[in-house]
Structures are given as C-alpha cells and as structure tokens.
C-alpha cells in the first residue's frame, strides 16, 4: 500500500472510531462471547476498526447505535435489495407473526404462491428453501441424480454460496480447491470442473467428456467484480448443455436485479433449474428453486427408484408460514415492473454519475451494470473471472468503503458493488458520486495509477 493511501486510511480509521462510542462499547462487550466479536464471522469483512452496530433500518436509510445515518447501497448484500423492511412485506410478516411461525405443513398460501412463481419466473414447478446455498445444493444433487453423472461445471471466480463442490478455482489451467476453505470434507476439485466465463472453446472441451451433470452459472458473474456475458454466450451455453446432456442451473440470487422476471425472463433464456434467494421474499431467509416439467419428471423417476431414507436435501424451518406471508407479499408488491423501473432508472443515473467522475479525472475505469446492480472497476471491463480477479485493488477498495462510511454511505465490503433500491432519491446518488470523486482526489493520481 502506498504512503498516501496508508495516511488516508489511518485518518479515516481514527474518524470512524471517534464518532462511534456506543458501537465501540458494544464491540468490547461482544468480544468475549462471539467469534471475532460478531454473531456471523462475515460481519468483520467490513474492515472497520470495530464492528458497526445497527439500531434500525428502513427503506434506504440505516441508522447505527450512535445515531448516525447512512444511505445504503449495500442493502444487506442484496437481501434488502428492495429497501429495508418493505412496508407490504413488513405488514404481512406482522399479520402472520401471531398465527404460527413454523409447522412442517403447507401454508394456506402455497397454491397461490406456486401460481405466482410460475407466472412471474416462467417455470412450472417449485420448492422453497431457506437460503440460496440450500437451493443450489439441492439443484446440484437433483442434477446428479437425474442425469446419473457426477461432475458439475462452474465458472472461474464463481460464488454460489457455501456449496462444497462450487468452492473451486481454475489455477494454471487446473481445477483446484478454492483457497481459504475451512475444514473441507474432501477435495472438491474431484467433483467439479472450472472453466472461464465467455470462453466457448473451454466450455465445449469440458462438456465433451459427457460426464457433467449440470452447469451452474450466474448469467452475469457478480461475485468477482462483475463480468458481463459476451453477446450470444449464454444462448450458446444453453445450446451446448442440451447437446451434451448437461442440465443448466441459473443462479439468479444477484441477477434478480435484471427485472421482475430475473435475467432469464428478461432475456428469454430457458434454464432447466432456476435458483433465487436473498431478496426473493423481501429479506426474510427464503430461497426458491424452480424447474421445468422435464426436470420434475426426472425427480419423480428418482423418487420412485429409491428405497427410502433421507434425501440429503431440505431443512426443518424451510417454507414456514412466516416466509410464505413474506413471499406472497414480495411477489405482489416487489417483483413488479414499477419497482424495477424505479430501481433501474436510479442505477442508470448512478452509472452516468460515476462515469462522469472517472472521465473528469482521466481515469479509464469502467462501470458494469445488470439492472439495479452495478459495479465499477479499475481499467477496462473484465471478460472472465481471471481478468476480474487480477484487476481488483483490495487496498483501494477498502479505503474507499471506509471513506464512504464516514460520509454516510454504505457500499458492500466486497469489491465495488452497489444496488439502487426503488425509494433512492437522486440527490443521494449525486452526493455519493461527489464523495467518490473526493476520494479519488484525496488518494491522488499516482496511487490510483500504480
Ligand atoms: C450468486 C449467489 N448465489 C448464492 C449465494 C448464497 O446466498 P446465501 O448466503 O443466502 O445462501 C450468494 C451469496 O452471496 C450469491 O451471490
């Protein structure tokens, strides 16, 4: 890290601590009882001197325990993509909360919600899980069972939750275990093959072995910066999966930002299985797994052929009445043309604003956007996960996040991703862009270009 960046970081860290005595006190009281001082270890990824404790969050405004407010472009890393506590979802949860929380029986809304999911996301069959991780794990298990094949194909730089066999990377043209995985049960590289996104030849080569049960993909990669699909690439992927007997799972947990029918619905892709978690029920733990009639027939064959026992899929609290209340309200009030139009128009304004800041300083940086989700990066837009990873500047990103936090703006702690909730106003966008411009000036050209 250069000297100017270290100085800036030091003064931002001091400013963070000085204005947050209550958070500091809660951090020191929490430290003896929680791993790394937090109830979920990712909460330390913000890189702040101590955790920021939240008092409440509504719409795009989050307020901390010291009474400081933030305009939220992180939105719980997508779980609150439609704003915190969307009123219709909050009301539905409140109404259900005294009528049963979990029963292990289908809720009375199941028929209606099934119809709405089918209509909205254009797949006839559904299951409900608690997290996108669960749904992806189930999608992969079903794919192996239906096809009788063992391997899954993932894209270099992917993230699909903490699903074992997706925790791999491509290094020196070999699929290897992803660095950092804690306590792996086995070598996941035996169960997966990783290829670069947008590389048709590599895809063909991996599929040609005819041992791939499923390709699991985000239609736009969003977990390694953002990598957009080259024109025609996803249609090509769809076609090659069919040709080689591999199923196509689209994980739209993040690309739900594309529009009310997700990326697949917006762009006319026809996955075999479709997963979406995080914001699908407005922020309550919920994920959905949609699938075609052919897959449902395959599932029935698998079920008929087995002799009983545990499937290895599902969790006790999944699909509970509280979640169904939230999911029904979200389908009616959040996954709509109007909501997405507001989000996308805000994202477009943010994209233009950022590009202006970069251009004013002669920085050849890019902004990539998938609907209401955008990401800026240093240099040209990456074409695959390896390029995206190489372009990352964790030191710069970390300093920027802290700079913005100290000025009342939250962006995700990972790379430079931002989401625009429907109630976001234009003045917040303009102020955010101005603060990013201020950061670029404070860091200085020499460091930015180094
Ligand atoms: C594309 C994608 N799929 C799945 C997941 C996992 O979601 P969860 O942690 O809610 O299981 C994530 C989390 O970031 C994700 O980005």
Helix proportion: 40-55%
Q: How many β-strands, per DSSP?
A: 16
Quickly give the structural class.
alpha/beta
Please list the strands of the largest sheet in the order they lie side by side: 4-12-11-10-9-5-8
Gyration radius, to the nearest Å?
A: 22 Å
Ligands and ions found: pyridoxal-5'-phosphate
User: Strand portion, in percent?
Assistant: 15-25%
Terminal Cα span: 10 Å
Helix count, per DSSP? Answer: 15
Shape: globular
Give the low-confidence spans.
none
* Main beta sheet strand tally, sense and closure: 7 strands, mixed
**Mean pLDDT reading:** 97
How would you characterize this protein structure?
The structure is a single chain. The protein is an alpha/beta fold and 450 residues long. 40% of the residues lie in helices and 16% in strands. It has 15 helices and 16 strands. The chain has helices spanning 3-18, 21-30, 87-96, 110-121, 132-147, 200-207, 233-244, 262-267, 293-305, 321-333, 337-360, 385-391, 394-405, 426-443, 445-449; strands at 54-58, 61-64, 69-72, 125-129, 151-155, 168-171, 174-177, 192-195, 212-217, 247-251, 273-276, 287-291, 366-370, 373-377, 409-410, 417-419. It has a seven-stranded mixed sheet with strand order 4-12-11-10-9-5-8, with helices on both faces. It has a four-stranded mixed sheet with strand order 1-2-3-15. Helix 4 (110-121) runs parallel beside helix 10, helix 5 (132-147) packs across helix 9 and helix 11 (337-360) packs parallel to helix 14 (426-443). The chain starts with a helix and ends with a helix. The mean pLDDT is 97. Bound molecules: pyridoxal-5'-phosphate.
């Amino acid at each position: 890290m250069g000297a100017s960046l270290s100085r800036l970081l030091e003064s931002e860290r001091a400013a963070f601590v000085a204005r947050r005595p209550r958070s500091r006190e809660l951090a020191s009281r929490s430290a003896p009882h929680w791993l790394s001082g937090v109830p979920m270890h990712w909460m330390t990824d913000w890189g702040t001197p101590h955790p920021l404790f939240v008092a409440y969050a509504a719409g795009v405004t989050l307020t901390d325990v010291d009474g400081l407010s933030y305009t939220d472009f992180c939105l719980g890393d997508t779980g609150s993509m439609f704003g915190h506590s969307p009123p219709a979802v909050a009301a539905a949860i409140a109404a259900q909360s005294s009528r049963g929380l979990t029963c292990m029986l289908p809720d009375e809304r199941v028929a209606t919600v099934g119809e709405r999911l089918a209509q909205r996301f254009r797949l006839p069959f559904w299951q409900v899980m608690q997290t996108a991780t669960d749904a992806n794990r189930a999608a992969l298990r079903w794919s192996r069972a239906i096809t009788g094949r063992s391997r899954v194909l993932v894209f270099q730089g992917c993230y699909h939750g903490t699903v074992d066999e997706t925790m791999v990377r491509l290094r020196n043209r070999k699929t290897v275990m992803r660095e950092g995985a804690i306590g792996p049960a086995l070598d996941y590289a035996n169960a997966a093959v990783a290829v670069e996104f947008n590389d048709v030849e590599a895809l063909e080569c991996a599929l040609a072995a005819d041992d791939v049960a499923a390709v699991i993909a985000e239609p736009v990669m969003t977990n390694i910066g953002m990598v957009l699909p080259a024109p025609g690439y996803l249609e090509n992927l769809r076609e090659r999966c069919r040709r080689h007997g591999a199923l196509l799972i689209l994980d739209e947990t993040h690309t739900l930002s594309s529009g009310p029918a997700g990326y697949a619905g917006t762009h006319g892709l026809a996955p075999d299985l479709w997963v979406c978690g995080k914001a699908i029920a407005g922020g309550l733990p919920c994920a959905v797994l949609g699938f075609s009639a052919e897959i449902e027939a395959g599932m029935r064959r698998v079920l008929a052929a087995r002799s009983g026992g545990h499937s290895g899929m599902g969790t006790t609290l999944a699909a509970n009445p509280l979640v169904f209340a939230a999911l029904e309200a979200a389908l009616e009030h959040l996954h709509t043309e109007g909501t997405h139009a507001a989000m996308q128009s805000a994202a477009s304004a943010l994209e233009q604003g950022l590009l202006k800041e970069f251009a004013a300083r002669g920085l050849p940086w890019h902004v990539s956007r998938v609907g209401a989700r955008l990401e800026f990066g240093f240099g040209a837009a990456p074409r695959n996960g390896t390029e995206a990873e190489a372009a990352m500047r964790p030191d710069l990103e970390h300093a920027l996040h802290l700079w913005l936090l100290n000025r009342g703006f939250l962006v995700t702690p990972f790379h430079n991703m931002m989401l625009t909730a429907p109630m976001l106003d234009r003045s917040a966008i303009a102020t955010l862009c101005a603060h990013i411009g201020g950061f670029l000036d404070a860091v200085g050209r020499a460091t930015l270009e180094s």
